[in-house]
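Page 37, continued from 36.
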């Protein structure tokens, strides 16, 4: 997590094992995953064992920040804890590493979202915690000027 001086508002990742926020100027937020040295499988999130072959010969990797929208739904009845807009699009994006990452789609009208669109990682404030810190979550947004094939 980002280290800030005491008493200063922090910006924190909602899930540090999935999303890393910049700690130095010039760095960008990125998704993290795991790559297995035994079978070559990539997975979302930090793991100690490969989900495919169960090898422990794995390493943490930075995942691509772009991929193709492979599926999406419009959520009209959200979980009781949901604080965002309703309805909202929830999409599955397949990254070049063949990892499927699902989260909310932002930056587009629901009727303009198409399977096959190129999407890119976006990070936005999801909530504010009890200490007043901004808790950030990852989202997908369409890449400007890239229509579905």
């Amino acid at each position: 997590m980002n280290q800030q001086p005491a008493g200063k508002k922090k910006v924190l990742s909602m899930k540090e094992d999935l999303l890393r926020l910049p700690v130095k100027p010039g760095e960008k937020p990125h998704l993290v995953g795991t790559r297995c040295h035994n079978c070559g499988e990539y997975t979302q999130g930090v793991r100690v064992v490969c989900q495919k072959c169960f090898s422990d010969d794995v390493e943490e990797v930075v995942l691509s920040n772009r991929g193709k929208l492979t599926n999406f739904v419009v959520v009209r009845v959200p979980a009781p804890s949901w604080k965002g807009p309703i309805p909202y699009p929830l999409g599955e994006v397949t990254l070049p590493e063949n990892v499927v990452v699902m989260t909310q789609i932002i930056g587009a009208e629901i009727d303009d979202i198409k399977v096959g669109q190129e999407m890119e990682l976006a990070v936005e404030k999801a909530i504010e915690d009890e200490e007043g810190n901004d808790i950030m979550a990852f989202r997908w947004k369409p890449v400007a000027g890239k229509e579905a094939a």
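Residues 11-142 form one domain. Flag for discussion at group meeting. The chain has a mean pLDDT of 91.
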